[in-house]
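PROTEIN DESIGN WORKSHEET
SECTION A - STRUCTURE
LENGTH: 309
TOKENS:
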């Protein structure tokens, strides 16, 4: 029994460290990408609406990460999956709040994409399409909020298992429908900019790069915190052109300096070798040039006067 308890304690500690490291790493990645986004915006100018949506997504990620960290002392790191009786209610309550931040984080990440599309496209037809997509996503988010808070009554019974609650029928099927619609909206957000990109007067490589940058919107089909973070990271990447340009300039500058240094060394070697050849040839040949003596007399004078007769 003592060995079992030691193994359980060790496993619990491992789970605790893993949860804390994953959450902290995820939060750092989110903060880094949003900070890079705003650094790029300082160069090219702020667009406000999509940047504000990115900040809202970041706040939701911070809220969700905080809830996950709060769940650790409540029993999240317990490898047996059992909860103490006195921690059951706060555990489920914190889980419920984390789920709300999860849904809202995905919503604001999608809005970051759509508002960016609406801003950069000038064609009236596609602006109408993007505006329609924004309205659909907003209305669907309102529906999800209503479902989230009204699917059971009273709401407190969701985390307090001592209370009786009445819930809508077929809750599992309803969850599947919501997940399917979320996946569909993710795919639509990823596909929407592609027709405009491929009609631009750009090289094929640039079109592929832009399609890849905007197409990252389909990646957030992951799980929980990682899904929201990947959505926010992918929403920030299309704004990183100033950062990429600066990195390319640094790389090209270093290559240019290296090339100039190599060419300079090669030129010095060539000049040195040429000088040696000329000196060697000068011993056998007698190069001459004209000098003027007086006003009209041109005399061919050898460069080696000691050999004059």
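SECTION B - SEQUENCE
RESIDUE ASSIGNMENT:
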């Amino acid at each position: 029994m003592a060995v079992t308890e030691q193994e359980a304690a060790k496993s619990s500690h491992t789970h605790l460290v893993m949860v804390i490291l994953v959450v902290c790493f995820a939060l750092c990645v989110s903060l880094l990408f949003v900070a890079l986004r705003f650094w790029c915006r300082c160069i090219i100018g702020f667009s406000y609406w999509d940047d504000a949506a990115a900040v809202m997504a970041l706040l939701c990620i911070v809220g969700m990460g905080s809830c996950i960290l709060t769940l650790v002392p409540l029993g999240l790191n317990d490898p047996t999956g059992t909860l103490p009786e006195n921690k059951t209610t706060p555990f489920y309550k914190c889980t419920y709040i984390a789920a709300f931040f999860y849904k809202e984080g995905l919503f604001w990440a999608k809005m970051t994409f759509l508002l960016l599309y609406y801003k950069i496209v000038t064609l009236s037809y596609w602006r109408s399409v993007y505006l329609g997509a924004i309205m659909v996503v907003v209305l669907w988010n309102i529906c999800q909020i209503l479902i989230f808070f009204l699917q059971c009554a009273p709401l407190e019974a969701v985390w307090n298992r001592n209370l009786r609650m009445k819930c809508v029928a077929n809750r599992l099927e309803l969850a599947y429908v919501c997940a399917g619609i979320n996946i569909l909206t993710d795919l639509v957000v990823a596909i929407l900019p592609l027709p405009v990109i491929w009609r631009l007067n750009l090289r094929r490589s640039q079109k592929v790069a832009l399609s890849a940058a905007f197409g990252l919107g389909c990646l957030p089909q992951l799980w929980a915190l990682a899904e929201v973070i990947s959505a926010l990271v992918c929403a920030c990447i299309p704004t990183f052109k100033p950062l990429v340009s600066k990195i390319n300039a640094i790389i090209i500058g270093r290559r240019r300096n290296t090339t100039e240094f190599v060419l300079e060394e090669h030129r010095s070697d060539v000049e040195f070798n040429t000088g040696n050849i000329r000196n060697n040839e000068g011993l056998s040949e007698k190069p001459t040039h004209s000098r003027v003596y007086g006003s009209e007399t041109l005399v061919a004078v050898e460069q080696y006067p000691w050999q004059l007769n």
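SECTION C - NOTES
Confidence is low (pLDDT under 50) at residues 217-224, 283-309.
Residues 2-44 form the longest helix (43 residues).
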